[in-house]
């Protein structure tokens, strides 16, 4: 028995260990990027290591068969090593371990695909962020005019062609009465033909092809005028129906 005793209390101190891992400043998750062929493309990648050490940074591209190809790598002691795209890629920063964005110096359509920025830290390990790149090409376009003759049946008056990725959209700017027909082929090729029944009053009228594409701020106009050949229309002026030798004041003109 204890009288006036002091109770004993045991206090249990719980120590909570909080692990703070680094994270990507850019790009955000599920990041998609569009670029245009023959321009410089920046694939963003910047990682906040939260005080840990970044040992290595790798850029990889996923091939069509699902395999991964190493494009470029930066190591904290061994420096930078590039793959088969050495002539067209480099790190954007002189210190790729702190700012790891990739530059494709002269983008090609073959560069389209899925990339991964992989950051290896110590002691936490490996972090990676995927990027999807779409490469557009500017349209290459031409218009093939057709010389028509009055009296011909309904036929093609002009043919417009264009190739790009994604495929362009073709339309016609004209006041002529006719019909257009559009076709789409492989490799981003499209064509549009404008057909009509040729009349002489159509000669010299506007028949322009308009090429629309996401790479263009406004539709590209290919200017064209319709050519319709027709026989001359002789007009006699100053004649009252009475012909005689030495008659003057009579004139024949063609319209």
From TrEMBL:
Which cellular compartments is it found in?
Membrane
Q: Which Pfam families match?
A: C2-set_2, V-set
Q: Which InterPro entries match?
A: CD80_C2-set, Ig-like_dom, Ig-like_dom_sf, Ig-like_fold, Ig_V-set, Nectin/Nectin-like
In Gene Ontology terms, what is a biological process of this protein? homophilic cell adhesion via plasma membrane adhesion molecules
User: GO CC terms for this protein?
Assistant: adherens junction; membrane
Q: Does the keyword Glycoprotein apply?
A: yes
Q: Does the keyword Ribosomal protein apply?
A: no
Ig-like domain mapped to chain residues: 28-134, 139-223
| Principal subcellular localisation of the protein | membrane
Its keywords, alphabetically, are: Cell adhesion, Disulfide bond, Glycoprotein, Membrane, Repeat, Signal, Transmembrane, Transmembrane helix
Range of residues in the leader sequence: 1-22
Family per UniProt? Belongs to the nectin family.
Descriptive protein name: Nectin-4-like
What organism does the record attribute this protein to? Answer: Clupea harengus (Atlantic herring)
Q: What is the lineage of its organism?
A: Eukaryota, Metazoa, Chordata, Craniata, Vertebrata
Tell me what gene encodes this: LOC116217929
């Amino acid at each position: 028995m204890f009288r006036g005793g002091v109770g004993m209390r045991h206090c249990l101190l719980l120590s909570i260990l909080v692990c703070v891992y680094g994270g990507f400043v850019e790009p955000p998750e599920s990041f998609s990027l569009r670029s245009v062929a023959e321009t410089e493309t920046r694939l963003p990648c910047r990682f906040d290591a939260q005080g840990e050490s970044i040992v290595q940074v790798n850029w990889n591209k996923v091939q069509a068969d699902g395999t991964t190809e190493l494009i470029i790598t930066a190591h904290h002691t061994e420096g930078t090593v590039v793959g088969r795209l050495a002539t067209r890629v480099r790190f954007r920063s002189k210190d790729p371990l702190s700012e790891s964005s990739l530059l494709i110096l002269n983008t090609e359509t073959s560069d389209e695909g899925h990339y991964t920025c992989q950051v290896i830290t110590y002691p936490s390990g490996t972090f990676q962020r995927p990027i999807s790149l779409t490469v557009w090409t500017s349209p290459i376009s031409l218009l093939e005019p057709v010389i028509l003759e009055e009296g011909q049946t309904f036929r093609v008056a002009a043919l417009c062609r264009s190739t790009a990725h994604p495929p362009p959209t073709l339309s016609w700017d004209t006041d002529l009465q006719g019909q257009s027909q559009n076709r789409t082929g492989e490799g981003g090729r499209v064509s549009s033909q404008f057909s009509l029944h040729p009349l002489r009053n159509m000669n010299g009228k506007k028949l322009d092809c308009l090429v629309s594409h996401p790479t263009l701020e406004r539709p590209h106009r290919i200017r064209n005028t319709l050519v319709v050949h027709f026989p001359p229309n002789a007009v006699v002026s100053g004649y009252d129906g009475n012909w005689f030798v030495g008659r003057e004041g009579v004139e024949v003109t063609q319209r």
